[in-house]
Design brief:
single chain; about 375 residues; alpha/beta; Rossmann fold; Dihydrodipicolinate Reductase, domain 2; 2 domains; nine-stranded mixed beta sheet; six-stranded parallel beta sheet; 10 helices; globular
């Protein structure tokens, strides 16, 4: 006897929530699920779908099988716990929570409820990521000595005016963590950590800001784990954008994955091998495992697997406040700010494992 299609509630339909909404509506048309309700502070004007501005009230009324939560980071814990209380499984956007204590609290709540919690690090739905993890664990690149992530995007003034919490470390006394490594490039950070080791031992971060914001828009970090070390370098102030990537440095080869493109390049003594993968949507992965034991961590990105990321996020938040990059080292335009030469600095950090302050020629550090 086939399982009835799961009833789903979407909480948060603007920003990235719009992507979730479109995907859920498509699956509803295909008979995969039933979108039984939507919650948001602003009415999305969806006909034939229950709507409420209060997500907890909607959850308690509908008791869905799945809650998809795509709200500001600092609201995740309260809404997720409310969903678990009414028996829902979770697809929780990244980052899941803003502290290790909250991570443990949410994991305990999900365990006690006997429910899955899938975290929205979309890269883990990629078959190219599967291939890379298998190659690393199979020893194809020898001993992995270091893993690095590069991110060079450009965001304008409107990016930091998009919501009250944008560009904030804290809001009304609550941790927000809208930094360059902890939010826009969080996917790459989580992937680098999964490739490097299971446990984080130390985090040394250097946050900077070109914009007049509270958090960082340009940052680097060096992380030691129980396995390989990790170097992170990223900016939202690039003059030339490029696809973010994670690179593995092994004793017998290297691998680079452009995780937004599901593209993997492996280089060993045997030559170069390039693969382009496909992607499984995390909502489909969750639906496919609803009847499986959550304790087995059968999902592609279960909450338990994101603890290392949360440890890094917390360390960055507890670390030094971002240093302002002097204006005479910036290009300031009508649409935004850029840091000349930042792309080269990011590339050198990735290649050498050095943080910005250890690189020659960066007069703004």
């Amino acid at each position: 006897m086939s399982r009835p299609r799961p009833r789903v509630v979407l909480i948060g339909v603007h920003g990235h929530g719009r992507v979730h909404l479109e995907g859920l509506l498509e699956r509803e048309r295909d008979g995969v699920l039933e979108l039984c309700g939507v919650a948001d502070r602003r009415d999305p004007e969806l006909a034939d779908h229950e709507f409420d501005t209060d997500p907890v009230r909607l959850l308690e009324k509908l008791h869905p099988d799945i809650a998809v939560i795509s709200t500001p980071i600092h609201t995740h814990l309260e809404i997720a716990e409310a969903a678990l209380r009414v028996g829902a499984h979770l697809l929780l956007e990244k980052p899941p929570v803003t502290s290790v204590a909250d991570h443990s609290r949410l994991l305990a709540a999900a365990t006690n409820a006997g429910r899955h919690c899938q975290v929205g690090f979309q890269a883990f739905g990629s078959s190219a990521v599967d291939q890379l993890i298998a190659k690393v664990r199979g020893g194809e690149f020898g001993e992995v000595e270091r893993v690095a992530m590069s991110g060079c995007w450009r965001r304008g003034y409107e990016y930091y005016s998009r919501s009250p919490w944008a560009g904030k470390r804290r809001l009304d006394g609550v941790t927000v963590a809208d930094g360059v490594l902890t939010n826009p490039f969080a996917h790459g950070v989580a992937l680098a950590l999964r490739l490097a080791g299971e446990y984080v031992r130390s985090v040394m971060a250097e946050p900077y800001r070109a914009y007049d914001i509270e958090t960082d828009d340009t940052a680097c970090a060096r992380i030691t784990t129980d396995g390989a070390s990790v170097t992170l370098a990223a900016t939202l102030c690039a003059e030339w954008e490029s696809e973010p990537y994670v690179r593995v440095f092994g004793t017998r080869g290297t691998a680079t994955i452009w995780y937004t493109e599901d593209r993997l390049l492996s280089i060993t003594a045997a030559g170069e091998d390039e693969q382009v993968g496909h992607r499984v949507a995390l909502i489909d992965d969750l639906i496919g495992h609803l009847d499986d034991d959550p304790a087995r961590d059968v999902l592609r990105c279960p909450l338990r697997s994101t603890r290392a990321f949360t440890e890094v996020l917390e360390a960055i938040q507890r670390g030094p406040a971002p240093r302002a990059i002097p204006v005479d080292h910036l290009r300031v335009g009508e649409r935004g700010r850029t840091v000349p030469g930042i792309e080269d600095a990011v590339a050198r950090a990735v290649a050498t494992g050095r943080v910005f302050s250890e690189l020659d020629g960066l007069s703004w550090v």
